[in-house]
């Protein structure tokens, strides 16, 4: 009896030892000079590179070696150090992680890093919700984004979530289209990128992760630290809320502790805006070690700037970056079969450039398919004689929808080269969007195979107006509008013609 128990105990011990050895991943981080993903003779190891399992961190030793525990449901990945980059696949997604289909089996994984000269001045493209559902939408992204960005010499691209409209099979065609731009792509997950067929809530990001890698991670680039978050927290069979799960929160805390002495700024990309997150105050507190905090988000199909005040520190600056798809690819199509699809605040669909140097950054909005200086829509009363339908919506105001403006922006107007007059910030709905919806309500688009425009209800954050001057002589009048924000280092100008009968 004693012998049997002893042998059984020995068997348990062996099984436990094997299980323990399999519960870690170990390997080397090395400089892959010939880009073959194998550490060849003479290729140096890299010390002090951060490796994470989605919760904990280790640093590679002086010989580039690491060993870290596996965490169920997570993979193991490195934090890209400045001036190096992991290999990219054909879609230009950065392969900084152990593939999810391998992590359970492997106990050894080496990370190749390729020397990557990174400038102090960075140019990054931020893409709000692409929201592709069918291949038509992928074609639209190719036309509106890929064609325009191919020659823009970008450092990297960040899609800000809601890549799909619940069609997870379309991840690959979308990534192929964006990959053609030629710059590395760092993806963010959105609520429409979750797999709600998964019964386990915390497995709902796995379809995303199989294509794009971890749903939260960090990387260094040049003189900057970047953090990508998954703030989509599943709560039942089909719903979610904005917050970080406990493991991700631990990851963020550990990262900040490790990096706070290396950077005085942090740049965060996530899908749901900070003001909609349940744990907003906790996150702001955690970010206290950083003097400057920038956040780029999507989700709302509107765009605006938000500032979160902090004691004795500059406020957290958040850009809600609108949507490549406008509002869900809604409305009539142009000659290329692309929907007009204004965002809910009347902003034309497009994307942002984030230009950074060591100490400052600048944000520029680009309307897809328009000149770079297209920064506002101007709406004024106009009495048509042929098609009088929209005359019904005329009022006595001139409106300027300034797409990239914030609350500090000063908007002024000049008539016929005269003095500049301040326009008034207006809390209202985009007149341009109201016109489009009015035409739809009259049946103008009924014969078209389109996604219908939602009823306009969103108050724009960047709309100004002024009453049409009394006493203008009959005839044509030149109208100039300028918008200036010293806080954003932003200027925009628009011209139009006002007719008085």
From TrEMBL:
Domain Calcineurin-like phosphoesterase C-terminal residues, every copy: 318-485
Signal peptide (residue range): 1-19
Record bears the keyword Transport: no
GO molecular function, one term: hydrolase activity
InterPro entries: Calcineurin-like_PHP, Ig-like_fold, Metallo-depent_PP-like, Metallophos_C, Metallophos_N, STPP_CPPED1
Source domain of life: Bacteria
Start and end residues of each Calcineurin-like phosphoesterase N-terminal domain: 41-113
SUPFAM superfamilies: Metallo-dependent phosphatases
Record's keyword terms, sorted: Signal
Stated name of the protein: 3',5'-cyclic AMP phosphodiesterase CpdA
Organism of this sequence: Flavobacterium granuli
